[in-house]
Amino acid sequence: MTRLRRSLFCLLALWPFLANADELTLRPDHPEIYVVVRGDTLWDISGRFLEKPWNWPKLWGVNPQIANPHLIYPGDRLRLIMTDDGPRLVRDGMGGPGHLSPKIRSTQLDTAIPPIPLRHVQAFLEEAVVLRSNQPGDFAYVAAAADEHLAAGQGDRIYGRQVDAEPGKSFDIFRIGPAYTDPETGEALGYNALYIGQAVVQRAGDPATLDVAKARREVLAGDILIPTDDRPLQAFYAPRAPDDAVKGQIIGVVDGVSQIGQHSVVVLNRGQRDGIELGHVLQVRQVPQPINDPVTRERIQPPSDPAGTVMVFRLFERVSYALVMNATGPMHTLDEVVTP
User: Fold this and answer.
1) How many CB atoms lie within 10 A of CB 299?
2) What is the pTM of this model?
3) Domain 247-338, what fold?
4) Is there a common fold for 125-227 and 247-338?
């Protein structure tokens, strides 16, 4: 089973049914019945019914007809009903494409409707790393490519220093990138690590000999080696607003794009030490450029305006990665993120 498949299994099997403190406010134009189509997500479906789609665990969580609410499939018919605990989604039991017979459904796990569009984040779940240091000597590192090559690719050999591992041990190869810097304090919050590939120890020692098993880019001397973590990734999310007030900023956009829109991955200057958790939903507020008052000659900062919503899906000590779930206006680096 691949790491992504294990991640998806964790996502689908370990979803916590959390009671959300927010009341479920229905959209005025919500449908009474919705037929699930391929490409839907739980966020999308809940957004058709709720003003705050991140409250979907409560919309689904006490539904006796969907004991595992995230295991729904294209073609399922969903009906909105009212209960003593508020609105709930159930499978429509009146026949049609969504009618379920009492039998085991034999389908691929990854055909189930995911909570968010995983294709936009799966690479970051496995390959995103933020380093505490930008000094190669603080890690195991690539000393040179073998056979007098200046660079190595898949199938080539490399020599590694400070590699304390036996033959067969796998290492991910990264290149140390620029610092993530806090816009207010100037503090280096961590260093972006560019994923290069993977290597396997063939001969222990100092230097150790490794074979490059996978290469996205050329492997160069000075690239660092981090032991591959084969544990299942905890990639399940219980979307919710933070309990406490949060105020931070977007400090980067992944993949070097300049425009931020729906399903962009952004970097926030808030992380575990700031109380951020996986699944936290934050509102993006666009910060306009200061203006000059023509009368007083003062430089004035206009108020920020709501521009969209992001959800944290990858967490580090001092920064986090978030997926833009919806965009209602233009977003830029240095825009604010706050508790919705």
Assistant:
1) 9
2) 0.78
3) Thrombin, subunit H (2.40.10)
4) yes
